[in-house]
Specification:
Two copies of one chain form a homodimer. By secondary structure, chain A is an alpha/beta fold. The first copy, chain A, is built from 19 helices and 16 strands. In chain A, the strands form four sheets. Chain A has a seven-stranded mixed beta sheet, sandwiched between helices.
């Protein structure tokens, strides 16, 4: 059959692509527009005549696909353009408009639906959307895809694991987890070698608090203003932003106390006023604070104060961990960059290279306070999760991401500081490693700049307040960092 | 090279099997024992002489693998036996003893490590362990692998998705989720078509409670004695067993009230005494109650009482859902079997055929009480999760699991009732669909029977109290159900 590939892109093969469905006429028309530009109009008109009675969003049937093939043939659309159509249809056989409407129809609006970019394909630090536009990724999906938005190697490992053993609860011995354990030790901070696997960052924070409560035989927790730790009852209770707690009656929990970040007196005061023996922090505060790193003296003092009081420190490294915040090669976690080892650490996001896997990691001492029955997890540390985590960890070491982060961070900081000299409203370039931010003076100006960046093909990160945040993949190249700076300059030029 | 396959099983190829590592000598010796039985002893002795100085658990190097190949050749081990060794080594290149020790060394002991079966391979309703023993699976990993422990089709979909787009946060439009939404509608109870995706059952319960609190503008919750809902701060607070709450100071939450299951007066009384407008239940109570189904009258009355009071019902279908509890073909959820639609439903476990994906599902009315900022999720509903859920849902429909559950449940119930007539201590065969249990009079006798079942090659499910629980895959065949009954009879015979 001529254009057999186009047929396969319109009518899916459940054996080769069980994740797809049949295309719609609406998507085919959209793809005509992407590939042919202005010339698509007349084709779409003629095609509609041919395909009368087919609802735009109905799944095409084989006979419809044959009609489309016949039309393409008759219209004399060149083979290279047909090939381009196939490419776009394989990434999505559904129109952008339908994708957006389906999400609006079925979503519980606990968050604002983002529809400016509908991504279909990742490649290194780049993302392509349904319309064929490419964006330089300076967000890494909140740091969950530090190794890029696509990962065939992890895909292959997951395929092998799925056809062998797709799941197993946390408390049973299995081989995928053993493989992981044989390799991870060297990446963990000294003494943190006890794992309790979970599935989301918030869930792991929730469980870390439970473990800390058991170990300290206390329930009061000191958290920090502008900290963010997640959304379960436990995790959101220690998250500063009252908007995240009040609707659920969790704004006045008697066991939670908020201290000022980078202010040791504030912590010491709360430790005196309350029975708190548990402190939770992000060493680099993320989305609520605009990537604000702790002062080294604060970390040193905090560790001393808490431990003198017989307390424990939970270090939430969900966003910072796995090389993003390296100060030197080998700093896999932000605490490494400060030379401080917490009592409990929460890891997640890029842990599995995109696969949902998180963990509480702790010392032997804290671990021994746990008893069978205290917790349990069906999916935590399942063989697929451990396979993804193993392959991701190997990639991180092979690609020397901590070394790369150090070099790229220097390059970006220098470039950002140069821009700050040019634009008076731009100041306070800060952060650690590739968890960077700079102030533009107001949240409005940040929003405008983010829109302009998108127009210049850059996806920046969720930002609140006057700081624009960037969290590029840790595999960012020198050329890509330079491109970002050039595009940022163009955006800032357009702004002023 | 002769025995090239054996070489590939000893020295892994990172391109084909990025999830593996090099084998150890200890595992090779274990595999010799599995394949050659008693004859392995002399080979192991001679091999050790040849391989002097190699630590039993060190990763073999290519030169070591060549030594092993030379030995196998020289010793004249027949090709079919070498092939069998390859099979076992490909499933695990690490010894059972090392796997167990690594888990013991690195686990936070919040649960008891299960090491009686170290699974490496699933096939339909069967599991093979590291020693090559097969077990009939009557547990489905707590109902998380209703479609079996291995799933190549989901694996293929995940591979395709991973090499395209491996992750995307909950609040961005994407194609994998759109594909899922286009197909799932017909499986959901009428009116439940708003989704908030999560990663574990406990997390989804936690978020369902948050949504219910917002919608009812209240915070008191009625849960049930012997109910189980998960382990986060929110989920464990509404879980009955005090052992799961007390260590964390969550045993005395003023917003949680426990009613008697199947006792409408108890609920009505609590609704009078408190401001509770939120009720959470499992329609079939699982692990803490021994698969106890609700009385139809109780469900009818509960729905009326709660709704008359302006309250909402959260139906936790994490273990019961996706066909396990079908009373008739098409009952995808336990509530369907009762003809009752809850206000919020929590789904999980087999939702993704083994992939960690869960959700809160609710009505348009409840959904509209949510506002952007109320929650957020990095991994919830990510493209891999949606791909797994889509393929799992298609498989469930294609295999007519609800129809199969109805037939198999009849067969098993009849068989169990016959056995109950033979063994006087066996009684009260109960449950719904393939969520079955029977009493053996004491927890001790349940434990003994589970040990005997394992000796007879059957893996039963976690059971507390005098009820032995069985939750076989929903794809259980007639022959497998018959085999279970035969093996159970043998176990009960050995018991008495």
């Amino acid at each position: 059959m001529r254009f057999a590939k186009l047929y396969d892109a319109l009518i899916y093969d459940p054996k080769l692509h069980p994740e797809r469905t049949h295309a719609t006429l609406e998507r085919f028309e959209e793809v005509l527009g992407i590939v042919l530009g202005g010339a698509a109009g007349s084709h779409i008109e003629k095609l509609r005549e041919t395909m009368q009675g087919i609802a735009p969003r109905a799944l095409l049937k084989p006979t419809h696909a044959e009609q489309i093939l016949a039309y393409v043939d008759e219209a004399g659309i060149p083979t290279d353009q047909v090939d381009a159509m196939v490419t776009h249809l394989m990434y999505s056989e559904i129109s952008t408009a339908e994708a957006i409407e389906m999400h609006e129809k079925y979503k519980i609006p606990v968050s604002r639906l983002e529809k400016d970019i509908v991504p279909v394909r990742g490649e290194g630090c780049w993302i392509m959307d349904t319309r064929g536009h490419w964006f330089l990724d300076m967000d890494s999906n909140y740091s969950a895809t530090n190794l890029g938005m696509a990962n065939a190697e992890i895909g292959r490992g997951l395929y092998n694991q799925a056809e062998t053993l797709i799941s197993m609860k946390e408390d049973r011995v299995q081989i995928a987890r053993t493989r992981f354990l044989k390799e991870i030790d060297e990446m963990m901070p000294q003494g943190l070698d006890r794992f309790y696997w979970q599935n989301s960052g918030g869930e792991a924070v929730d469980k870390a608090i439970k473990l800390a409560k058991v170990h300290t035989q206390s329930r009061d927790v000191i958290a920090f203003k502008q900290g963010f730790h997640g959304r379960t009852h436990g995790a959101v209770s220690v998250t500063w932003n009252e908007k995240y707690r009040k609707p659920f009656g969790l704004h006045d929990e008697d066991w939670v106390h908020f201290a000022e970040f980078n202010d040791l007196d504030s912590v010491a005061q709360l430790m005196k006023e309350t029975d708190a023996k548990i402190v939770i922090l992000e060493v680099v505060q993320g989305e609520e604070a605009g990537n604000r790193p702790a002062d080294p003296d604060f970390i040193k003092g905090l560790w001393e104060t808490v431990h003198q009081n017989g307390g424990v420190i939970i270090d939430d490294e969900v966003q910072a961990g796995f090389g993003r915040t390296a100060r030197k090669k080998g700093d896999w976690f932000a605490c490494d960059a400060y030379g401080a080892v917490p009592d409990l650490m929460v890891i997640g996001k890029s842990f599995g290279g995109g696969y949902p896997v998180t963990a509480v990691v702790t010392t032997d001492a804290v671990s021994q306070s746990a008893e069978p029955g205290y917790d349990g997890s069906t999916f935590g540390g399942n063989p697929m999760a451990m396979t993804a985590a193993l392959i991701a960890a190997r990639q991180m070491r092979r690609l020397d991401v901590t070394g790369n982060v150090v070099t790229r961070a220097e390059q970006l900081r220098a470039g950002l500081n140069t821009l700050a000299q040019k634009y008076p409203f731009m100041e306070d370039v800060r952060g650690l490693g590739l968890m960077l931010a700079f102030s533009l003076g107001s949240a409005d100006r940040v929003a405008q700049t983010q829109d302009l960046l998108r127009e210049h093909g850059v996806k920046s990160s969720l930002s609140t307040g006057p700081y624009l945040r960037i969290l590029p993949p840790t595999v960012l190249s020198k050329g890509e960092a330079a491109q970002f700076l050039t595009r940022l300059e163009a955006a800032l030029d357009a702004l002023t």
